[in-house]
Specification:
The complex is a heterotetramer, with 2 copies of chain A (386 residues) and 2 copies of chain B (320 residues). Chain A contains 14 helices and 7 strands. Chain A has 386 residues and is of the alpha/beta class. In chain A, strands 1-2-3-7-6 form a 5-stranded parallel beta sheet, sandwiched between helices. Chain B folds into 2 domains: 168 residues, 3-Layer(aba) Sandwich (Rossmann fold); 129 residues, Rossmann fold. The chains are: A alpha/beta (386), B alpha/beta (320). At the C-D interface, α7, α8 and α14 of C face α3 and α4 of D. The complex binds thiamine diphosphate (TPP) (2 copies) and magnesium ion (MG) (2 copies). The site of one magnesium ion has 6 residues of chain C, from β4.
């Protein structure tokens, strides 16, 4: 798989031959290859995904500079090198209908799924107007009531949450045509939460897609210290779910394979596990120089930049051209600049006006709520009246 | 009507009245649950009662997801002790959700709690203190048949994650003629289980009954002991406790759980801080021993407070 | 697989053909089948395993009567119907060298591994002289320092403990020729602990055997609500471990397949997952009538009694004869009677002499140990002086 | 030498002196750990320092198994918060093992604990109270560079499971010229961090330093505050605390953790019960707010006690 498929025709051939994106576990090979072709041909889909990749890259570059300039407190986690997988998933989902639980490296997917740019800059920069109001930060953001749950840090924990959202929709009679998707790292597949969540989804046969972004490292830990199977997609069969592999550096392949997984889930084939192989082209966080990644890995096929590959692919397929890309880039830079500036001008949360209430419930007994009472004996500032 | 019947009836009521309620837990569908708390409900409410895999973490994740979508899942842990496996989803996902996102997750976890003879270290635990420590959870500990019923119904109606600790020792032993299904004390209020004047025992769950038993014995010696049933340990109705201590001047905080920290520490600390002047004697605590809950009935009976050890403690308290 | 292989020759043919015991995942089929044949031919092995099955059955029948007579407090958990799998594993391990972590239905394996009968009766009857001294009960017993860790109730939790014991032995340079084994139920495969533990063992390539006793139910819950794959052995590949299936009602098959798994682990092939199919021929505990098991399942191939099958197999292969079996039975009944009587005569733990100390450490500061101090404020009886 | 250097050096010492010690944790081998607490140790001690998969439950199970075999594993949790995933193995397997079987499991879990600005709800937690509640665990909370060193070495030498809570805020901020590697206070003893006479602040871990800071400010008003550093929260050296309260007559229990239950409740409850007559004023507590630890530095700083809020609390305490 050393020669990337770079023309549309090549890409499609590669998909069909199982090179660019292999559909494992022997399900529906012909049918799905054909479908993949359709998706890859979907010009609008590719343009959307590409634009999301580009916008994410530009945004993340800015976040990186802000971090280095000391303007962001806490960690900055980027998806550089993982945009093709992320954008393909985000583009295959339908906001307002589907559930999408992005993880740590999913800026591109978030963008494709329609997350406002301001959500990101406000959360990173601690604006009280952001969706997390300064209570949580960086990649911990979303809109749970609108189908985008907010990750907790504990890896693997979102799998069962997405399953629960889908389970609820089925009970409410609103499951038709819905897909729930989440991403997860290679390292996070070692968690019990991943196992329990995927197994539960399989038992309930939920319309769920779990995309494993195998970027070969969990922080500094290589795959060899994380699992002993040849390829994580071999787990699919043991859960009784569909399994697909894809070259995560190849947007056309991602579009077809991830699109196919989403289509299968949407049309009743039950959960789908997609394993995308790639390399994170940045540190674990911006504090990390990733010096533990050996040169030969950086230099191999998966070390290539998926955005460069996608640019070539889109131009060669005629989905866009350099001029349009340049314009998109300009526009994105301006949007990012504006979103950063706006968030920076916005107020930080004010501890004196913070309600310090972890409960939605208010209790009738005066002073018996732990919140009110504990605040009285807790740190200054005094609690605001709710 | 027993305590467990009340729990079953409350779930029946919830399923009947609220279409957003569903039940999820191991062996709770056709089998009706390890303790029969859901007996007949799967048949009565098709598609609303589900057998879960042995995956407490995923069970809790599912509940959070369903709560986000506006459902009101009621999760049965087969034993409170096994909620340790779902601990992360409870304290980090469920408990933090409203604070972080503004979106409440109305879910209820039923924890069959507390010791019974021969149940041993892993089928006897009382985990209320561990959950109450975490912001964002409500922890209920009903001691009566009526509270078992009403607090489950009222708990499920709350928009926050509720840890409902039901005591296994009370399941079949505790009976009531019937339950007044109307007016009842809301969540957040403690209750005077027995009025008295010489000392206050603050207890919850099964220990309320042991305290009342001890109080009755001490009556023969002329002591009149007040017993406060906390009902919920978070929120903790410290006002009712303080009012009682104001009447009696003496406090024994009683619990079946492990002795380090926990409800008795919180009660004594709160009363000492907020009602110091009300105390005529040092406040006391009585907990289980600081070991796992032993299997053998003889060890078990000595591990937790008993009417005898409560009487002893009260006599010491009254002697000061 | 409806006609049990009942003569030695048939059994061996069945093994080779993958009927009685199939070696999945395509590893070493010929070699292992040959080895299986050797094992099955091992008369002493079969006699040992059979005797363990018989003794376990007799002991458990007695436990059941004691329970029904109200002489045992707490639960009674039996392995009826699972003795072949359990005894085959226990017999393949070497006490003093190997690690064996039996689970809830492993009386036969315990017996084969050399657990004293008195350990069982003392623990069930609460004798203070038992290995658990009344602190823990029923199937929660063992001798951790002698290679037999004691299970906690939380399912799946022993897998990583066994891995840790093996890991330690490797560090100590005492791993050569050692195997660590544990059993687990079908239901317990849904736990995160199982997943994390097996995956860790695979990464470390530990000499470990995990035998899944798929008795088709977890308490009342059927396989269909527990996993969605066709056969749990399909999980092996996803962990990168060996995978073998076996008919758990067939002692010859169990002896060869489980023996093979143990041999593979012992000789450096890394962890092995064996999935045995069978049916629990009793309730979850003796309080349970298992009325949720449908008649057609009770009546099918796996509903047969492995002890009957083994009896026929051993007689037909000439490994023993009815006369000897009758003598063994008589002797076992007597041994069980004696062990029950002895345990019943022994003292219960005395709470007044109990040290109530959960820590091995004693601290220099008088009264600062939580034990001493808390006891002072805790329940009567007064703490004993240690 | 910083607090984190001391932790590294202690592990270096342990690996050098005790062949039964090994280190196991995520990214701790070549990478040296998320906080560099094991930097260079994998190279210095080949085959003794291992990268773990992201499997906290199995990491703890492995530690128990290794402990059974007589090894002394030191487990690094990447953050204390993630130990919630290994919770079951810690509280049910490790903590109960000695009591049940008589076989000790000498293992140590290092928990990078406590808040730092911008770390948010899942990288800031203080879990000492949760673990101290369970019988069978020892919970250490070193506040100084010297204690970070000695208590880790002494903790690993104990035959029981040790939860070693190291405070991330102190990692690089807290420095000492050098560590006296000889005589030192054994585990189980609290320490007078600052002698005083008007009130006692009982604190542990990072809050010891905030308490000392507050005490220094109050000196300007003529108040002389004693600060007790608990060092270990289980066992809890109540004698040293009582002796201090006997001197000052006033108690403020200070903690960074959530306010329900926890160390401050245990301290106030124990002092109230055992040293009631020593108190000239109601005992006080100061904890974090009852919400998850917020991300934003401004919220974070107001969530936990600060020198200002400690001074405020002490002024109120001294005014009674
Ligand atoms: C349960 C848990 N343990 C440890 C961590 C600390 N941690 C955060 S990210 C990370 C590595 C994740 O690797 P992977 O899943 O491969 O995702 P990637 O960062 O490569 O995208 C670790 C160990 C965590 N967040 N959750
Ligand atoms: C983590 C956990 N959850 C729930 C239980 C309660 N429980 C005890 S045995 C059992 C069923 C186990 O089924 P399986 O693993 O198939 O073993 P079997 O009893 O069939 O041998 C359950 C749910 C438990 N022990 N541990
Ligand atoms: Mg990764
Ligand atoms: Mg089973």
């Amino acid at each position: 798989m050393q020669s990337p498929a770079e023309s549309e025709a090549d890409a499609l051939k590669a998909v069909a031959a199982g090179a660019g994106g292999t559909l494992s576990c022997g399900v529906l090979m012909n049918e799905s290859a054909a479908h993949a072709a359709n998706l890859a041909l979907d010009r609008e889909f590719l343009r959307k995904a590409y634009l999301a990749m580009l916008r994410a890259r530009i945004l993340e570059n800015k976040l990186s500079s802000l971090y280095k300039a000391g303007k962001i407190v806490g960690g900055v986690y980027l998806g550089r090198g993982q945009e093709a997988v992320s954008a393909a998933l985000g583009s295959a989902l339908e906001p307002g209908r589907d559930v999408y639980a992005p993880l740590i490296r999913d800026q591109a997917g978030r963008t494709a799924f329609g997350e406002p740019l301001l959500d990101c800059t406000r959360t990173y920069l601690g604006s009280v107007k952001g969706p997390m109001r300064g209570r949580d930060g960086n990649i911990h953001r979303g809109h749970p009531a609108q189908g985008m749950p907010v990750m907790i840090s504990h890896l693997g924990a979102q799998v069962s949450v997405v399953a629960g959202m889908l389970f609820a929709r089925r009970l409410k009679g609103r499951i038709d045509g819905v897909v729930g998707a989440t991403t997860i790292g290679d390292g996070a597949t070692s968690t019990g939460a991943f196992h329990e969540g995927l197994n539960l989804a399989a038992i309930e046969r939920l319309p769920m897609v779990v995309v494993v972004a195998n970027n070969q490292f969990a922080y500094s830990t290589p795959n060899a210290r994380q699992f002993a199977c040849a390829d994580l997609v071999e787990r699919a069969r043991g859960y009784g779910v569909g399994g697909l592999s894809v070259d995560g550096t190849d947007l056309l392949a991602c579009a077809s394979v991830i699109g196919e997984a989403v289509r299968r889930a949407r049309t009743g084939a039950g959960p789908q596990l997609v394993v995308a192989r790639l390399l994170r082209l940045t540190g674990h966080g911006e504090h990390d120089d990733a010096s533990y990644v050996p040169d030969h890995i950086r230099g191999d096929h998966y070390g290539r930049d998926c955005l460069d590959v996608a640019t070539r692919q889109l131009i060669e397929t005629g989905a866009t051209n350099q001029e349009e890309i340049d314009a998109w880039r300009e526009q994105s830079i301006e949007e990012v600049r504006a979103a950063v500036a706006k968030a920076q001008r916005e107020p930080a949360p004010d501890p004196y006006r913070e309600s310090w209430a972890a409960l939605a419930s208010r209790f009738a007994v005066p002073d018996s709520s732990p919140t009110a009472r504990d605040s009285a004996t807790a740190a200054t500032p005094a609690p605001a009246t709710p | 009507m027993t305590y467990i019947d009340a729990i079953r009836d409350a779930q029946d009521h919830l399923l009947r009245e609220d279409p957003s309620v569903f039940l999820y837990g191991q062996d709770i569908a056709t089998f009706g649950g390890a303790f029969k708390a859901t007996k007949g409900l799967a048949e009565a409410y098709p598609g609303r009662v589900f057998d879960a895999p042995i995956s407490e973490d995923a069970m809790m994740g599912l509940a959070v997801g369903a709560g986000i979508e506006g459902m009101r899942p009621v999760i049965e842990m087969q034993f409170a002790d096994f909620s340790s496996v779902g601990f992360n989803q409870i304290v980090n996902q469920a408990a933090t959700h409203y604070y972080r996102t503004g979106v409440p997750v109305p879910l209820t976890v039923r924890l069959p709690s507390g010791g019974t003879p021969g149940s041993g270290p892993f089928h006897s635990q009382s985990m209320e203190a561990v959950y109450a420590h975490y912001p964002g959870l409500i922890v209920l500990t009903p001691a009566t048949v009526s509270d078992a019923y009403h607090m489950l119904i009222d708990g499920v109606a709350l928009d926050d994650p509720v840890i409902y600790c039901e005591h296994k020792f009370l399941y079949r032993w505790l009976k009531a003629k019937s339950i007044d299904k109307g007016e009842h004390l809301p969540i957040g209020h403690a209750r005077i289980a027995r009025a008295g004047k010489h000392a206050t025992v603050v207890a919850y769950s099964a220990m309320v009954h042991e305290a009342v038993r001890a109080a009755e014995r001490l009556l023969q010696d002329g002591w009149d002991i007040e017993v406060v049933d906390l009902r919920s340990v978070k929120p903790l109705d410290i006002d009712t406790v303080l009012a009682s201590v104001a009447r009696t001047g003496r406090l024994l905080a009683l619990g079946e759980a492990f002795p380090w920290g926990g409800v008795t520490a919180e009660v004594v600390a709160r009363v000492s801080a907020e009602g110091f002047h009300l105390l005529d004697a040092p406040p006391m605590r009585l907990n289980a021993h600081d070991t796992p809950v032993p299997y053998h009935p003889k060890l078990w009976a000595a591990h937790r407070p008993t009417p005898e050890s409560i009487c002893d403690a009260l006599r010491r308290l009254l002697a000061i």
